[in-house]
Specification:
The structure is a single chain. Strands 1-2 form a two-stranded antiparallel sheet. It contains three helices and two strands; from the N terminus they run E-H-H-H-E. The chain has one domain. The radius of gyration is 13 Å and the shape is globular. The mean pLDDT is 94. By secondary structure, it is of the alpha+beta class.
């Protein structure tokens, strides 16, 4: 099992894991642009292993949640069979 992390907002009714198109649509229509925020923070490259990529995303998610003074962003996790 591999655990993956994503960042979302407390009011988004959709799962970024299970229904990304609906999650993304809600996020953008609400003006959050969470994917863009994550993209600005995460440090990844094509040279990284999948495990290193997942770790970089998790660290970026943790940073967003930690620095989130409004309380709007939360971390969600899901385990995947690999």
């Amino acid at each position: 099992m591999v655990k993956r992390s994503m960042v979302t907002t407390i009011d988004n009714p959709h799962s970024p894991f299970d229904d990304f198109p609906s999650w993304y649509d809600y996020d953008v229509r609400s003006g959050y642009h969470t994917s863009a925020l994550l993209g600005r923070i995460v440090q990844v490259s094509d040279q990284q292993s999948e495990a290193d990529y997942d770790l970089a995303v998790e660290q970026a998610v943790d940073e967003i949640v930690k620095e989130n003074v409004s309380g709007m962003f939360i971390k969600v996790e899901k385990e995947f069979d690999e």
